[in-house]
Amino acid sequence: MKAFYGEPTLKQAFIDKLERHRQLDQIIQGKYNLGDKGCFFGCSVGGNYPEKLERYFAIPGQVGKCIEYVFERLPHPKFLTWPREAVEAIPVGADPSLVWPKMAIWMLTDIRKFLKRPQSIEANEGVVALYQRVANGEIVTKAEWASATSAAYAAYATSAPHEAPVASAVAYAASATSAANVVAYAADAAHAAYVAYVASVAARKQFRTNFQSKLTELLQAAPVTNTADVVETEVTAWQEQFKLDSKLMVK
To answer: Cβ distance 58 to 47 under 8 Å?
Structure first.
């Protein structure tokens, strides 16, 4: 995968589109589409379509959902500029496919300290191990993900109320490999774990700050690939975006 299909003009077109939405006060939280206004996904691809983000810009849906998670939880006016900042952080031609696996490893390792039951600890370690293999370039089969996901949900189903947020974060993170929309659930559950276990309000808020910082770090560090250019039909897919989704164009 090559972000923006290796085309600097595509990245700039994306940034210009987001900036135009901001200038017209069309960036809002909580709604994918509200007239001419919308959230990160609404202003980017017209709605909750992680697959379109990948098709048009070669950015994985899970990465888009990480960006959205931060966007929806930032205060005004910081959320207005975050979409542009996130897109600007991704190098043209970089491979962002490992950003989510590394985010998942960071998040699940961070909340590991809240787990007490052996079953929950084992489930967490199992999911982290699979993501680590992905980060190392190994292939993890669907059967292996299914097994780890099943174990994580089983641990969540039998967890005590105080441990449930942590256990659910593990289960959601495992599910996110095949369902990008679950990414935000995993992050919210991880934050809920801090709320349940940490008395300091500042420490609770720090999780979200750290999430944004780690995401930015991984976006910037995504390696630029030297693979052959993608086929012509893929390269031109983004060019058709503004024609096919003309209703999304800022007038």
So the answer is: no
What is the C-alpha separation between 249 and 251, in angstroms, rounded?
Answer: 6
> What are the domain boundaries of the chain?
3-95+226-248, 97-212
CA dihedral 209, 215, 217, 222 (to 10 degrees): 180
Q: Which of 144, 74, 134, 77 is nearest to 104 (CA)?
A: 134
12's tokens? 């700039």
With tokens 């962002």, the residue in question is 96
- Token pair 């495992």 in the structure block, residue: 174
Q: How far apart are CA 105 and CA 98, in angstroms?
A: 11
Q: Which residue has the tokens 């700039």?
A: 12
The encoded tokens of residue 216 equal 């930015």
Mean pLDDT of the region 91-114: 97
**pTM of this structure:** 0.91
Q: Is the pLDDT confidence value at 183 over 80? A: yes
18 touches 90 (CB < 8 A): no
Reading the block at residue 176, the tokens are: 């996110």
- Average pLDDT across the chain, whole number: 91
